[in-house]
Design a protein that fits this description.
The complex is a heterodimer of chains A (243) and B (411). Chain A is of the alpha/beta class and 243 residues long. Chain A contains seven helices and ten strands. Chain A has a single domain, classed as 3-Layer(aba) Sandwich (Rossmann fold). In chain A, the strands form two sheets. Chain A has a six-stranded mixed beta sheet with strand order 6-7-8-3-9-10, sandwiched between helices. A four-stranded antiparallel beta sheet of chain A has the order 2-1-4-5, covered by helices on one side. In chain B, helix 2 packs antiparallel against helix 9 and helix 9 packs parallel to helix 12. The two termini of chain B are 28 Å apart. Classes of the chains: A alpha/beta (243), B alpha+beta (411).
Chain lengths: 243, 411
């Protein structure tokens, strides 16, 4: 069975003054559909760069990236936008809601760019809001919602398109511990529902929820382990890291 | 993504900054308003001039008494009583291309009718004058030959006199007193409207020239007055105007016994020239103001560009977010282009309304016909749209070219 996400020797460099800094080098990994993966590492380890590459916000300098069987590494900006619209859901750190749009309209946003009709858009956005427990808050403005509620709206927006992968970058970064717990339970729920989740974090309690933990150091994968007691998926755990 | 969605996004963004949007559109509003107003006023003024030339009577020439020279100092025109009824008769008789040469003698005088006083222009004429001015008697009749010769106490009144003195009721058969002399009204004239001097041409009472000379205007000093205000001359054809002008000059110099080297004691005017010149002046002013309006439109465009650039910078994170959830470059470009376009079109619409209102107000005050040119509105709004697109393009392009990652990280 083909993995949902597969990268082979993915590399990305950034110019930094005179020198060129490697943000990611030779990262090869596979993620199967339905996995809940945490990508860990200190700041500067390249985890955000990896997420931008996986989320098609950025293009690798070299290496291959196959998403749902399609080579997406060399696509144009507009083609990548189309894939983002269809197959990727993003959960960023706060605040990433449009302030002048209601919660419902924020959730609808990916469907707007996917040219979904108004009625279907509204229905699917309502469903997504209900899934994160905010069915009654659809017509509230972002500034009328608490931090945790705002982040749940963001999660509803990330899943409204039923994307292949939901990518989260420090999803609990600016939340207190009890609110973080709510958000993490929500991720557990999404995982149980069969969503594929990739969470970038340096917080242990976040990474601990994941079925699989990948650790980055200086742009390379130094660890890739599955937590005990998880369902076995030997055909997708396919570490190809080249140290 | 459908254009309707972009329209919705754009209107929401503009509504969120109402004051800023209004101020941004102001340059366009002023520019379009000025264009629409000036074109409309110009057209109205032009129509007014044409109408005045028409009411004046076609192919008209005026012969006026000249300035008197007194020891080297030339006095005011008309100070020398040089034109007489005989001059008019001679012009008529001796010049082939002259259809009518109508003498006129007038003064502003109080008029009493019923128990009403009214100060108006009393003018002594022959029936010829009405022919020269192409002025119809709509009620009653003009003077007949007898009345002209016998100094009859009959009058033909203008429309204003009927309204003001007879309360709009039929004036024919009514009696009026001019000075101490009673007159019977035998005719009412068609409406002419405002004259070249801005005074109503209908506020007038015509009496036979002989009556004016002997009983009314001349009688003020107890003498008969011979000197005319002017002679109106109707030509057979406009093309003979220069030739006739020369002939009149020659004839009158001869009749007045003016030496070859002396200047004439009369002058010949073409009243249409004055009006045409005034029309041209209005047009020149209009062109000047339209040039100013064009500058205003460009400045308006620059202010749209300025605000759109600010807006793109302010909303960098929003742009990054939209890109992350699937907006492509075209979606972003359209979002900002439509915003600029809406700004300029709203400015154009508001400006067109403002300009039309101003034009109506000006026309109302000046007594011109209101002529709002739909072409001026369409061209001005089209130009406003063009300004919006051309000055909105660069900011929109700048937004579309943003790198999604950098945009998302933008503080």
């Amino acid at each position: 069975m083909q993995p949902l996400v597969r990268t082979i020797a993915l590399s990305k460099q950034y110019p930094s003054g005179e020198a060129v800094v490697s943000a990611i080098s030779n990262v090869s990994l596979s993620i199967a559909a339905g996995e809940f993966v945490a990508i860990r590492g200190r700041s500067g380890s390249g985890k955000s760069t990896l997420m931008n590459l996986l989320g098609l916000l950025d293009r690798p300098d070299s290496g291959e990236y196959v998403l749902k069987g399609q080579d997406v590494a060399k696509l144009s900006e507009d083609a990548r936008a189309a894939i983002r619209s269809r197959d990727i859901g993003f959960v960023f750190q706060l605040p990433t809601l449009l302030p002048r749009a209601t919660a419902l309209e924020n959730v609808e946003l990916p469907l707007v760019y996917a040219s979904v009709s108004r009625q279907r858009r509204r229905r699917r956005a309502m469903d997504a809001l209900a899934r994160v427990g905010l069915a009654a808050r659809g017509h509230h403005w972002p500034n009328q919602l608490s931090g945790g509620e705002q982040q749940r709206v963001v999660i509803a927006r990330a899943m409204v398109n039923d994307p292949a992968v939901i990518l989260a970058d420090e999803p609990t970064g600016s939340l207190d511990s009890s609110t973080s717990e709510e958000i993490l339970s929500l991720f557990d729920g999404l995982h149980r529902d069969g969503h594929t989740l990739v969470v970038v974090t340096h917080a242990n309690e976040v990474a601990g929820r994941a079925q699989r933990q990948i650790t980055l150091h200086d742009g390379r994968i130094v660890h890739d382990e599955r937590a005990a007691g998880e369902r076995s998926r030997p055909n997708v755990i396919n570490q190809e890291s080249h140290p | 993504m459908s254009p309707v969605e972009n329209l919705r996004i754009a209107t929401r963004a503009l509504r969120a900054n109402k004051l800023r949007s209004a101020l941004t559109a102001l340059g366009i509003i002023v520019g379009v308003a000025a264009v629409v107003c000036m074109v409309s006023v110009g057209a109205g003024a032009q129509a007014e001039v044409s109408e005045k030339i028409r009411t004046l009577g076609a192919n008209l020439l005026l012969v006026l008494p000249g300035a008197r020279s007194s020891g080297g100092a030339r006095l005011e025109s008309g100070t020398q009583p040089t034109l007489t009824e005989e001059d008019a008769t001679a012009i008529r008789r001796e010049l082939a291309n002259v259809q009518v040469a109508a003498p006129l003698l007038s003064r502003s005088m109080p008029l009493v009718a019923l128990n009403r006083n009214w100060k108006t222009l009393v003018a002594g004429i022959n029936a010829d004058y009405l022919v020269a001015r192409e002025w119809q008697v709509v009620e009653g009749r003009a003077f007949n030959g007898d009345e002209t010769v016998s100094a009859a106490k009959v009058a033909i009144v203008g429309a204003v006199i009927v309204d003001e003195v007879f309360d709009g009721r039929a004036g024919v058969g009514g009696s009026i007193r001019i000075g101490n002399v009673p007159f019977t009204v035998i005719g009412v004239l068609d409406k002419k409207g405002l004259g070249a001097a801005g005074r109503s041409q209908d506020d007038v009472v015509f009496i036979p020239l002989s009556t004016a000379k002997s009983r009314v205007l001349g009688a003020v000093h107890g003498t008969t007055r011979e000197a005319l205000d002017f002679i109106s001359i109707k030509l057979a054809d406009a093309s003979v105007r220069p030739e006739v002008q020369r002939e009149i000059e020659e004839l009158l110099r001869q009749r007045h016994r003016i030496r070859r080297d002396a200047s004439s004691d009369f002058r010949i005017e073409n009243p249409a020239d004055v009006l045409t010149a005034r029309g041209a002046a209005v047009r020149t002013l209009g062109i000047l103001l339209i040039a100013v309006a064009a500058v205003s439109l460009v400045v308006g465009g620059i202010s749209i560009m300025n605000i759109m650039l600010v807006s793109v910078t302010e909303r960098t994170r929003e742009i990054g977010l939209r890109m992350a959830v699937g907006a492509n470059r075209r979606d972003i470009r359209w979002q900002f282009l439509i915003e600029a376009l809406i700004l300029s079109l709203i400015g154009g619409g508001a400006g067109a309304i403002l300009g039309a209102v101003a034009a109506i107000a000006i026309a109302w005050n000046a007594g011109w016909p209101v002529l709002i040119s739909p072409w001026a509105i369409m061209i001005a709004c089209g130009f406003a749209g063009l300004v919006g697109v051309s000055f909105g393009l660069y900011p929109a392009q700048k937004a579309a070219r943003l790198d999604p990652i950098a945009a998302l990280r933008f503080e």
